[in-house]
Design a protein that fits this description.
About 40% of the residues lie in helices and about 15% in strands. The protein has 12 helices and 12 strands. Helix 1 packs antiparallel against helix 9, helix 2 runs parallel beside helix 9 and helix 5 runs parallel beside helix 6.
Length: about 350
Amino acid sequence: MDAQGGDLRSLPDREYLDLGTCVNRYGPPPAVEAALRSIKPEHLLAHPYGCEESFTEAYADFMGASPDRLIPGRGITEFIRVLAQLLPTEQVAVITPDYTDTIRWFPTHLDPPSGTVETPQSRLDRVDSAMRTHPYVMLSNPNNPLGFYLHRDDLVDICRANPDSVLIVDEAYIEFLPEHAELSMTQSGLSNVVVLRSPNKFFGIAGTRTGALWTLNSDIFRRVAERKLNWTLSHVDTVLATAALAETQWAERTRSALLRNAVGLEEIIGDRFPGLVRGVPVHYRFIATDDPVEGHRFFLDHGVAVRALDGRQPGRVSGLRVTAPTAAELANLKDSLTQLEHV
């Protein structure tokens, strides 16, 4: 319960289809394997001079942002912890449910009203309310684990109405949206916005640790940059990430395939799990259930690992998060569930 997605070490010794982590099951693109093979031992002798600049330029081009407004780092998690060190945590409100490290490091949680069904509008309303009462507000968008996306224009309107509050947006899954460059808050043009980004999930390279913080807020930019390590990114991380970011055609194909597979996933599990959140624009689905242990066991019995979340934990909601598999994996899962129904 609440184990990090993708960590299967506590499960019985058998082979599982890992749908518990939100990494793109089609990744990494072939160019990453070629890039890995191109690395020679002598490339590792020197310190990684120029790697930060190389990654930052590639990622800025991919997201349609200016590289001089990006600070490179080792994934989004590093920036969450740095912000927890720099900001007065009691002044930071988190729109929950949310990501593990966010709710761990920032204890002020703004949950959905008791007994209500969470919607994009209910989340947007809480952002609006929070920015009127808190100096800092944190939001994952698209949300982890529910999958809801709050449109950039709506968030921009709220930020403009509350210039003394800073919205910190975790966009770990924005790249799974077809128009990700236009829909990102990096296009807001506002100085009271901070965006956390990483290509690791979308390109299927979570084993590397790359990410970036974007902001036009000069004070936050300076303070975060001062915390940056001398060698933020390794040579290996940079070579693989920049190779992935150049694979734009692969990105378009796999994004479309994943979103189709997510709809297919809805079709084969929706009848069994009435709490399924449908129609969200990402590649994972959330199943609201009061007994996530039973649901987790159901999937394990079919050789599938999913993420089980305990709603009794602060900042959590009770349920299961299931990532869309590849088309072949989806077909196998459908066959497995169909065979069970006929037993």
